[in-house]
Amino acid sequence: MTRLPSSDAGHDFSVDADITAAATIAPSFYVDEAAHMLARERVFARSWQWIGDLAEVAQPGSLSPREMLPGCLDEPLLLARDAAGALRCLSNVCTHRGNLLVKAPCRAEQIRCSYHSRRFDLRGQMTFMPEFDRAKNFPSPADHLPQVPLGRFGDLAFAAIDPVGPLESFLGDVQERIGWMPLADFRPDPSRNRDYDVAAHWALYVENYLEGFHVPFVHADLNQVIDYGSYSSELFRYANLQLALARDGEAAFELPPQSPDHGQRVAAYYFWVFPNLMLNFYPWGLSLNLVQPQGIGHTRVAFRAYVWDASRLDGGAGSALHQVEMEDEAVVQAVQRGVRSRWYRGGRYSPTREQGVHHFHRLLGEFMAPTSRAAGA
Ligand code: FES
Ligand SMILES: [Fe+2]
After folding, report:
1. pLDDT digits over 315-328, tens only?
2. Nearest CA to ligand 1 atom 4
3. Which bound ligand lies closest to the C-alpha atom of 132?
4. Which of 75, 89, 134, 205 has its CA 20 to 30 A from that of 160?
């Protein structure tokens, strides 16, 4: 069990609100083990985490185990749809001596622990326990399975430990912008899933994603497809959007009149949701990227594909994701070595091209602050 540092001395990660005057977040954020542990509790445990989709729990009486943010939060969860059709997210840990309850997706009328046979219904209520007749004050509320906050966005499921606000405060702006897409019809395509291991701190991976500034310098081929001059960043409370317009002749969305972007040739919507989720919408569908810290200098990024229009898979900004990923990883891994330098003291932001990075660092400063309960969801 990792202990949190007893004091916050040396952990000032605040960043000036004025981008024209601000310096980037203190480099110790990337290199200090104690800061990394603190971020797990203050950043990840207080934000909404993607826990997969709902395809496996479509039917009443279905159970599906999940793990919240593997390698970082590692919280065993259980999606359970009861006979009446109500969906819940429960702790997947037996309230007796802590055995994991459900190990594979299944249909069931009850949950039975394989260790000493404690039973629960699909609402998480303990219903039976052998050899406990003489136990006092049993069962008590603590013997039922804790229910975990659960939210959904289309068919995507999100859970949170101690969220600073409802899921809508993180995803409401995404919904408003692309709510016209039939998200519930997007189909998972596991053949296009990939996991990437990156030798870098998770925040370096995220901040690289948050600026298109490097596109002409790092991604020569992508730069032929999107119009860098039109690349824009829009900041929301716990999310942001980078909008890329298509160059003439390149693939673009056919936007319906109800889209706020109707009339523009949008090549891609790159949404980032604090702290570690990217939702990249292309004319073919969604590439979801979950950034999973595996340690202070090691990050695993899960790419999950949800296809809407398979006929559009091979063109435009969303067609060469692997090549773009390799180019990004090379530069992020170089930065990882750079931020450890004794001479690197942090930098400054481009006021015109790095608003997204500044916003991310500001949120990190807010969540990492000692007294903090991030305000105003
Ligand atoms: S740990 Fe589950 S019944 Fe003992
Ligand atoms: Fe990039």
Report:
1. 666 667 889 999 99
2. 116
3. 1
4. 205
